[in-house]
């Protein structure tokens, strides 16, 4: 059965299959630089989009050229970074053009200096639907790699962009297995935001199993670690118990970052409604509509993200040495 039997609308899967083969070859290269991070969990509401926006903005602020791609029909990055309702927000059209119509993946612009965006939005649902169709069609192929060629579609469109950016962050939707597998197949590293509740831990375990599957076709992929969200800053004993549970869930495969992100709902809402990440809102002129208590919480939240960004940077450096920092 020919690979060209399996077509992704105007684009056949030859490019996707070739991209997966190159991912496998890259794992043998001592010179390969890991720079694509998948921000992913199997459950929503665990801080995924907030993490992606805050980390992307932080790296851009220190002079790194960053590309943030949202593989999510919700399109939360537009709200987090304040470009909802602007020409930057194409509702996912750039991804549809690249994945479904064989065009180059082109960012819609800069949401911040050095921070380029490929937004998510409702149009991403078209990609999800097509990936499910292609997975079903490819399953009829006799070769295992060809059966999973569809997983290489994002890897294929990202390849021409790698050299242009210091860091590429994929903010991947929680509810779509095919989208998560395609995102993981394109990534070099993964971050998993998680909360302590059973539902969040279940989502973490689901993503861990998809990570294992993706690594069969993308052995470059490493797990940087888990970012713990919704932690009460004063509950250190509870936090330690949560860490033990999460590390047990992961089978010791990756660390839980020591820097957690505390739960401050008012601060998080204030940031999203103003289209700024915590560090930006902290560093702007005081907003008269924000109470002193909320401003204090915003400062604390900004400090959490800054400390976490440093730990992520350290983990990226270690990942490029072939070692994951704990």
β-sheet strand percentage = 5-15%
Average residue pLDDT: 87
Number of helices: 13
Runs in which pLDDT lies below 50 for 5 or more consecutive residues are: 1-11
* Strand runs, count: 10
C-alpha Rg (nearest Å): 19 Å
Biggest pleated-sheet summary: 8 strands, mixed
Helix/strand/pairing class, anyone?
alpha/beta
State the strand order across the main sheet: 5-6-4-7-3-8-9-10
Which terms summarize this structure?
two-stranded antiparallel sheet; 13 helices; alpha/beta; 10 strands; 326 residues; globular; 47% helix; 8-stranded mixed sheet; disordered N terminus
Task: Give an overview in words.
The chain has 326 residues and is an alpha/beta fold. It contains 13 helices and ten strands. It has helices at 14-26, 48-61, 76-80, 93-101, 124-138, 144-147, 153-158, 177-186, 198-217, 236-249, 265-274, 278-283, 292-319, and strands at residues 7-8, 11-12, 36-39, 66-71, 109-112, 115-118, 167-172, 189-194, 222-231, 261-262. The protein has an eight-stranded mixed sheet, sandwiched between helices. A two-stranded antiparallel ribbon has the order 1-2. Strand 8 (189-194), helix 9 and strand 9 (222-231) form a beta-alpha-beta unit. It is globular and about 65 Å long. Residues 1-11 have low confidence and may be disordered.
Q: How is this structure best summarized?
A:
The chain is of the alpha/beta class.
